[in-house]
């Protein structure tokens, strides 16, 4: 299968002078570190459930523009050396130097650079790009490069297994070593004979599903002891394997078992003590389908299942019935996914060496058996200029720089098995990709599920891969083509022509994607010209990976090809604490769409309150699609995800790690259609997930059943005398009535031309205790309703209902009359109720509480425009600011100032602008309650919708999707391999 060492040596001898490296970001004579402001931080990480400190390191050094989350995850995941010792890395400089200097040395030692000056430029450019979060290598590079450990740089591995016990047991061993190193592996089990075939001894074979049990148990054991990352694996079976129906239904049956055990009272949560009794939970399963099978599904004909040893058809089944079973199993438990075999191999550059039969666990890397791929991803938002144009020229240069570094890494890399090392060195498969596509589309005013969004994504992906293969051909002229190129040259050049033809078929819609596409067209022309002359250094160049942990390292809003997860995010702050943040991507998009500052402020405030844009004040309905997200009130449709994948797939060497999300109400037939459309649109792989299809988190009805069982058991114990009923002391609210004589103030107002009067009565301490509303030209019915409403609110206030609760409930209510008001503090109102409770908030709530609700006076808004802060602080220190507050409270006479004097309900003020800093940006920051620990938790609270995701086993935070895997916002842990 692999080429000889002699072939590699001959390729090197034909090589020419090294590369000339062009400067992109750096300046001659200035080291990239010298242009950065560095600061020291304390990194303390806790498990919020147990309160246990799981990591602590003080005085670590990072650039001041890196977010707390990025520095925390890099410190905990990537710094090497025992904590508390001199050997422990103390800052980002040490980490980057450890990696970059290793790459630069290997490049010089292996003849990649024309001169020592080129080697230095390469080192400086790579350093700059990493410091400024322009791109990142995959996690194994940061784990291993430059350490005493094996220099493993690859995240993805594909193994192979034959129909022999020696091979099967070797599979268990190789997979275990890969898991131990924190990576994942996939393989195809279709060579193993089915349970419907005979052994040479005369007995019946066990079949591949039975051997999956042993591999699953092995992965589970290693997973439970993993330190950096959990075991991740993919198991593939061909659609014509006689055991395909058993394979398809395997995990669905286990899901039924989980439900039954859960309902019997066992702990079946992810990470629960009883979940280990369930099998097949450590792997993603995929069915490998052929064009023949998919056509049989379309036509409603039967399909033959073939014996593994002879290839003869031993059973014929109805193709549609089998597809329905695949879709039904996916509907029940999200497995199996689907891989399109003929499409995959039609884009295979090395068919003379062997077919592609499997993928890595996340399905983006597809190549030869016993091979590996190292990944890197570019941060797309870093190439968006201040004028909202995409810097395609710099993007191409960075892609060429990164692909050069990735190829160099194979020169010094170590591999878990000799066969994987040999194949990787002979074929040099790489996986360059990108992150932050969803954020880029939103920032530029493109809907994710729109023709314009898909055209832009296709152009960028085409340029990325075209630039990478262009550099690969240039590298072939310098250090020789990959050793397996000679026997696969015709096929490789054919696939390059397929990419070029797909690029020619892209329809551009505006200046942005047209300019990118023009560069991509030139790049593909160069690929074919240079490749015909020099060959290629790499069999594969690009994939779209999940970018989980490295996405946090680059402060990305979105991972891989994914849309934005939600419009409102959870964010940690320097010095502790956390905030609810509306991304700066949103105001940037609104400005791009032509909205003025006042409208942007109102829309952002609305998003902060509701988590979506539906009925946002002043936002045009045709612009809603720009802000559609992966979850929430306007979740992107399943086919929206499929169409985006189809737009990018023709420009990738590998595939795309992505899950197509469907609502809980989706049917089996809808999943069938998604799988069929994925085949027709030319995808290589597809996975689906229907909300709440897995028991990974207890569902609300499950909690209810548990509570009912507890109540029944308690009743039984009382009846038998084993327990007794204890009377409960019930604390009931008491009414605090206003004194007979109380101060009050009356405010006249108009909303949309309707006149009204608001009278508010206060307690002696200044707190609001009653209100009355009167409207001019009102009928007797409306007058009665408003009197009743006023009494209800007043009684609630006197029984202790906080005013901020009423403000939260009644602001943003939308009905007529609505529009302009005569109040300078509340310029626009969506209804009379909206105005009244905003006015009450301004009069009776302290600044801290109002700011978390996004309610500011005209003076405060003006101050924010001038100084960047709503607070009346100026350049004073926080201590002076506190003294000013105390002095104001002591001398105040107005009700709202007296309310502040009575005591604050919330413990801390909003962050200073300097605290809310991130590569992603932030807007409308406000405090979050203590039970919120992630963006998933935040969206659940804002929209009342369950986020169907597992809990991180390291820090207890609810994870969120990243491709076909999950990633933890708290500590960066992932459930995948990249």
Automatic annotation (TrEMBL):
<feature type="region of interest" description="Disordered">
    <location>
        <begin position="866"/>
        <end position="929"/>
    </location>
</feature>
<dbReference type="Pfam" id="PF12637">
    <property type="entry name" value="TSCPD"/>
</dbReference>
<feature type="compositionally biased region" description="Basic and acidic residues">
    <location>
        <begin position="895"/>
        <end position="904"/>
    </location>
</feature>
<protein>
    <recommendedName>
        <fullName>Vitamin B12-dependent ribonucleotide reductase</fullName>
        <ecNumber>1.17.4.1</ecNumber>
    </recommendedName>
</protein>
<dbReference type="InterPro" id="IPR013344">
    <property type="entry name" value="RNR_NrdJ/NrdZ"/>
</dbReference>
<feature type="domain" description="Ribonucleotide reductase large subunit C-terminal">
    <location>
        <begin position="154"/>
        <end position="689"/>
    </location>
</feature>
<dbReference type="GO" id="GO:0050897">
    <property type="term" value="F:cobalt ion binding"/>
</dbReference>
<feature type="domain" description="Ribonucleotide reductase class II vitamin B12-dependent N-terminal">
    <location>
        <begin position="42"/>
        <end position="133"/>
    </location>
</feature>
<comment type="function">
    <text>Catalyzes the reduction of ribonucleotides to deoxyribonucleotides. May function to provide a pool of deoxyribonucleotide precursors for DNA repair during oxygen limitation and/or for immediate growth after restoration of oxygen.</text>
</comment>
<dbReference type="InterPro" id="IPR050862">
    <property type="entry name" value="RdRp_reductase_class-2"/>
</dbReference>
<dbReference type="InterPro" id="IPR024434">
    <property type="entry name" value="TSCPD_dom"/>
</dbReference>
<dbReference type="InterPro" id="IPR000788">
    <property type="entry name" value="RNR_lg_C"/>
</dbReference>
<feature type="compositionally biased region" description="Acidic residues">
    <location>
        <begin position="873"/>
        <end position="886"/>
    </location>
</feature>
<keyword id="KW-0547">Nucleotide-binding</keyword>
<keyword id="KW-0560">Oxidoreductase</keyword>
<feature type="domain" description="TSCPD">
    <location>
        <begin position="738"/>
        <end position="843"/>
    </location>
</feature>
<dbReference type="InterPro" id="IPR013678">
    <property type="entry name" value="RNR_2_N"/>
</dbReference>
<dbReference type="GO" id="GO:0000166">
    <property type="term" value="F:nucleotide binding"/>
</dbReference>
<keyword id="KW-1015">Disulfide bond</keyword>
<keyword id="KW-0846">Cobalamin</keyword>
<dbReference type="GO" id="GO:0071897">
    <property type="term" value="P:DNA biosynthetic process"/>
</dbReference>
<dbReference type="Pfam" id="PF02867">
    <property type="entry name" value="Ribonuc_red_lgC"/>
</dbReference>
<comment type="similarity">
    <text>Belongs to the ribonucleoside diphosphate reductase class-2 family.</text>
</comment>
<dbReference type="Pfam" id="PF08471">
    <property type="entry name" value="Ribonuc_red_2_N"/>
</dbReference>
<keyword id="KW-0170">Cobalt</keyword>
<dbReference type="GO" id="GO:0031419">
    <property type="term" value="F:cobalamin binding"/>
</dbReference>
<keyword id="KW-0237">DNA synthesis</keyword>
<dbReference type="GO" id="GO:0004748">
    <property type="term" value="F:ribonucleoside-diphosphate reductase activity, thioredoxin disulfide as acceptor"/>
</dbReference>
């Amino acid at each position: 299968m692999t080429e000889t060492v002699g072939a590699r040596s001959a390729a090197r001898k034909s090589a020419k002078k090294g590369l000339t490296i062009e400067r992109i970001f750096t300046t001659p004579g200035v080291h990239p570190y010298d242009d950065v402001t560095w600061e020291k931080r304390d990194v303390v990480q806790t498990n919020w459930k147990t309160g246990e400190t799981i990591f602590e390191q003080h005085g670590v050094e990072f650039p001041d523009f890196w977010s707390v989350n990025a520095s925390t995850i890099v410190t905990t995941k990537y710094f090497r050396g025992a904590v508390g010792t001199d050997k422990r890395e103390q800052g980002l400089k040490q980490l980057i130097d450890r990696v970059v200097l290793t790459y630069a040395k290997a490049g010089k030692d292996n003849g990649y650079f024309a001169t020592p000056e080129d080697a230095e430029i390469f080192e400086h450019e790579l350093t700059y790009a990493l410091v400024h979060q322009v791109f990142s290598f995959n996690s194994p590079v940061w784990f291993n490069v430059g350490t005493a450990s094996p220099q493993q740089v690859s995240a993805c591995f594909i193994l192979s297994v034959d129909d022999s016990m020696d091979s099967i047991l070797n599979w268990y061993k190789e997979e275990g070593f890969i898991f131990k190193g924190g990576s994942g592996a996939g393989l195809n089990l279709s060579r193993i004979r089915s349970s419907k075939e005979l052994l040479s001894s005369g007995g019946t074979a066990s079949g591949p599903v039975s051997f999956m049990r042993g591999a699953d148990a092995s992965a589970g054991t290693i997973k439970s002891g993993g330190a950096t990352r959990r075991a991740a694996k993919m198991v593939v079976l061909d659609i014509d394997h006689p055991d395909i129906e058993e394979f398809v239904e395997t995990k669905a049956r286990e899901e039924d078992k989980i439900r039954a055990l859960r309902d019997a009272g066992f702990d079946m949560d992810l990470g629960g003590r009883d979940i280990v009794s369930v099998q097949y939970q450590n792997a993603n399963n995929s069915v490998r389908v052929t064009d023949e099978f998919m056509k049989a599904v379309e036509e409603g004909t039967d399909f033959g299942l073939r014996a593994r040893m002879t290839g003869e058809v031993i059973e014929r089944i109805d193709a549609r019935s089998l597809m329905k079973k695949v879709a039904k199993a996916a509907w029940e438990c999200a497995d199996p996914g689907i891989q399109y075999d003929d499409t995959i191999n039609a884009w295979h550059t090395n068919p003379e060496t062997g077919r592609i039969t499997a993928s890595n666990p996340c399905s983006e890397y597809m190549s030869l058996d016993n091979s590996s791929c190292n990944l890197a991803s570019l941060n797309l938002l870093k190439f968006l200029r201040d004028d909202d144009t995409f810097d395609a020229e710099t993007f191409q240069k960075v892609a060429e720089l990164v692909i050069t570094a990735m190829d160099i890494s194979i020169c010094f890399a170590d591999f878990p098995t000799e066969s994987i090392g040999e194949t990787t060195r002979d074929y040099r498969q790489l996986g360059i990709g990108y992150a932050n596509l969803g954020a880029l589309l939103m920032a530029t005013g493109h809907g994710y599920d729109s023709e314009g969004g898909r055209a832009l994504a296709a152009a960028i992906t085409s340029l990325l891969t075209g630039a990478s293969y262009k550099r690969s051909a240039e590298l072939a002229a310098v250090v020789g083509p990959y050793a397996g190129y000679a026997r696969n040259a015709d096929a490789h050049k054919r696939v390059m022509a397929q990419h070029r033809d797909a690029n020619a078929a892209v329809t551009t819609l505006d200046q942005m994607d047209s300019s990118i596409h023009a560069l991509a067209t030139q790049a593909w022309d160069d690929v074919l010209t240079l490749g015909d002359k020099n060959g290629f250094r790499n069999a594969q160049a690009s994939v779209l990976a999940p970018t989980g942990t490295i996405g946090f390292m680059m402060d990305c809003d979105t991972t891989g090809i994914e849309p934005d997860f939600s419009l409102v995010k959870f964010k940690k702050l320097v010095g502790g604490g956390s905030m609810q943040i509306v991304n700066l991507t949103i105001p940037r998009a609104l400005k791009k769409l032509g909205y003025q500052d006042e409208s942007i402020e109102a829309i952002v405030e609305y998003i902060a309150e509701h988590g979506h844009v539906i009925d946002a004040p002043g936002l045009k309905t045709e612009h809603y699609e720009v802000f559609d997200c992966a979850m929430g009130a306007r979740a992107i449709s399943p086919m929206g995800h499929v169409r985006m994948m189809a737009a990018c797939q023709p420009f990738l060497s590998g595939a795309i790690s992505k899950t197509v999300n469907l609502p809980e109400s989706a049917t089996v037939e809808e999943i069938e259609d998604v799988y069929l459309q994925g085949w027709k649109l030319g995808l290589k792989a597809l996975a689906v997930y229907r909300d709440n299809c897995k028991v990974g988190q207890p569902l609300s009805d499950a909690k209810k059943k548990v509570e009912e069982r507890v109540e029944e058991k308690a009743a039984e114990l009382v009846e038998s005398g084993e327990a007794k009923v204890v009377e409960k002391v019930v604390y009931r609210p008491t009414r605090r009535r206003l004194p007979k004589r109380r101060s009050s103030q009356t405010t006249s107002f108009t909303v949309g031309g309707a006149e009204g009067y608001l009278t508010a009565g206060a307690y002696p301490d200044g707190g609001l205790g009653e209100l009355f509303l009167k409207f001019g030209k009102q009928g007797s019915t409306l007058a009665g309703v408003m009197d009743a409403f006023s009494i209800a609110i007043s009684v609630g206030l006197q029984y202790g209902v906080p005013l901020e609760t009423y403000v939260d409930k009644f602001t943003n209510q939308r009905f007529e009359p609505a529009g302009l008001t005569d109040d300078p503090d509340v310029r626009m109102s969506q209804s009379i109720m909206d105005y009244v409770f905003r006015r009450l908030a301004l009069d009776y709530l302290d600044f801290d509480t109002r700011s978390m609700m996004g309610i500011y006076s005209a003076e405060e808004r003006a101050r924010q425009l001038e100084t960047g802060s709503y607070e009346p602080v100026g350049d004073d220190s926080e201590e002076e600011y506190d003294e000013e507050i105390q002095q104001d409270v002591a001398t105040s006479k107005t009700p709202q100032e007296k309310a502040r004097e009575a005591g604050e309900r919330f413990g801390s003020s909003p962050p200073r602008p300097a605290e809310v800093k991130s590569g992603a940006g932030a807007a409308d920051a406000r405090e979050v309650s203590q039970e919120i620990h992630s963006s998933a938790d935040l969206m659940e609270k804002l929209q009342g919708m369950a986020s169907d995701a597992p809990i991180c086993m390291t820090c207890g935070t609810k994870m969120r999707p990243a491709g076909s895997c999950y990633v933890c916002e708290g500590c960066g842990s992932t459930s995948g391999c990249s």
